[in-house]
Design goal:
about 40% helix; about 30% strand
């Protein structure tokens, strides 16, 4: 990427990086069906502290995954925090010692004033990041430093639609608040028990049994809730 001149305009920088020497580079080779979200990751006095949410983890894979992470060359310990069997989701805490030629991507971002807008995800051996920066110079410096620790592919560099984003989030919040107490209760139970997971962890009949209600009533509550929320989400999807 060529050098940029600072413009003073907020920028959204979205990229993928194959992080050399990091666990993210090879986790999908060892566990092909597993994907991960980096909830947070920071470096403190030489030690990297990371919390990840791993999905697509079958129950019999939990212990091998934690052991694999703990044995990685940049990791010192890995500990299972919790496991949700129905959702096949594991929360794992990692401690790493980056006394190698690499370092956490988040370190590079933060020291160059690039701030993630959403948690990074890991798939196909790459970390996927979306960050906000104040100037082209910050993006350029960040990109150059990222290339020192991995292979970087730029997905987008653009001015973020902050107005639309904030408006959309406000409308979603209002839509949630507009749900009736009964709709909120049924929707929350559906989410908790994995009704919206893929594959689903429960069906409409099982939700109705938990609720001591008939399936048509529960289904109607869900449809009305979904319609309100999706209508608000639609404003964020409507791009010129």
């Amino acid at each position: 990427m060529s050098k940029y001149r600072g413009s003073g305009t907020m920028l959204e920088y979205t990229f993928r990086i194959r992080h050399k020497g990091c666990w993210t580079e090879t986790v999908n080779e060892a566990f092909p069906g597993v994907s991960a979200t980096i909830i947070y990751s920071y470096r403190l006095t030489g030690t990297s502290i990371t919390m990840i949410e791993a999905t697509g983890v079958h129950e019999e894979q939990v212990e091998p995954l934690v052991e694999w992470l703990a044995d990685h060359e940049v990791m010192t310990t890995a500990q299972l925090v919790s496991y949700h069997e129905a959702r096949e989701t594991a929360f794992i805490s990692l401690e790493g010692d980056y006394r190698t030629d690499t370092e956490p991507v988040l370190n590079v971002l933060l020291r160059n004033n690039c701030f993630p807008t959403i948690p990074a995800t890991v798939s196909n051996g790459r970390e996927h990041w979306s960050v906000l920066a104040s100037t082209h110079d910050e993006v350029s410096t960040t990109h150059d430093e990222l290339r020192d620790i991995g292979s970087v592919e730029v997905d987008a560099l653009r001015q973020p639609e902050l107005g639309r984003l904030l408006t959309g989030l406000t409308e979603i919040k209002q839509a949630v608040q507009a749900l009736s107490p009964r709709q909120t209760e049924v929707l929350a139970r559906a989410i908790e028990h994995g009704y919206y997971d893929s594959p689903r962890a429960c069906n409409i009949e099982e939700l109705a049994a938990m609720d001591s209600a008939n399936t048509s009533t529960v289904g109607e509550h869900l449809r009305r809730s979904e319609a309100k929320i999706l209508e608000a989400v639609g404003t964020m999807l409507d791009r010129d």
